[in-house]
Amino acid sequence: MEQMKIDESMRVPIDYNDKELALAIRELKPVVFRDGDSYCTLYGPNPQMGIFGRGDSVSGSLADWENDLRERLANAADDDEVVNDIKELLRNSGIQTW
């Protein structure tokens, strides 16, 4: 699975070792970036195919991303490349999926 390329000038630095972050965020390390007045969080090739969150703040964007992650894990088709990649990464990390 290919991660969307986000220009460095748009990226928001995240400390993925921060214990305050959800375990899935720490393990999957989605990209957080600015889009106008919004913050976006993405894991995947683009917002339409990937796991995507948007909010007025970094924490809002991460929370929206976690909601999309849970929904996609619960409802993904067997051929969903992004979800299959996530399941494998989480399984290799010893994290149970929802």
Your description of this structure?
The chain has a 3-stranded antiparallel beta sheet. The protein has 98 residues and is an alpha+beta fold. The two termini are 21 Å apart. 21% of the residues are buried. It contains 3 helices and 3 strands; from the N terminus they run H-E-E-E-H-H.
Shape: globular
Contiguous low-pLDDT stretches (5 residues minimum) are none
**Side-by-side strand order of the widest sheet:** 1-2-3
Strand content: 15-25%
Average residue pLDDT: 93
Percent helix among the residues?
25-40%
- Counting DSSP H or I runs of 4 or more residues, the number of helices is 3
Largest sheet: 3 strands, antiparallel
User: Which class of secondary structure composition applies to the elements?
Assistant: alpha+beta
Order of helices and strands: HEEEHH
Distance between the termini: 21 Å
The counted number of beta strands is 3
Rg calc:
13 Å
